[in-house]
Amino acid sequence: xxxxxxxxxxxxxxxxxxxxxxxxxxxxxxxxxxxxxxxxxxxxxxxxxxxxxxxxxxxxxxxxxxxxxxxxxxxxxxxxxxxxxxxxxxxxxxxxxxxxxxxxxxxxxxxxxxxxxxxxxxxxxxxxxxxxxxxxxxxxxxxxxxxxxxxxxxxxxxxxxxxxxxxxxxxxxxxxxxxxxxxxxx
Length: 186
Hints:
- This protein is 53% helix and 0% strand.
- With 186 residues, the chain is an all-alpha fold.
- The mean pLDDT is 83.
């Protein structure tokens, strides 16, 4: 069996927890809950987590589907280098961001999810995983002059074998009817 890449799971968990933190924070700030400054912090922390976690990392094996617009945030995440690439740093960062948001009921779910993401990132770091950006492959252009482009088929599928497709002379092309056909007088 293949080895599990824990960083993918941590990335999805952290992105979802960032969105949950933002949602809980907006609810608490809009309702002016007691301790709403913690909710304002949860909004800021959730937005930061979402921006950090939006770009997916490249998988070791197989292909990785890039998120829509990921290339712009990937450039920002790459600028910070080893700070954002190392999963030990991400695990500690997520755990630290989760603590203040845990003091408010509307953000406690986001805190728990972020804590779980932190634990999964710690597991990924222990297993030796690291964030690498998804590089764009250069698109291959079809060669026009080298004879690589062939003519499209002239017959629609299904096609008979090549031997029977060869044109036969007119006198050989006809078939004989094995049943005699007679016309009846009227």
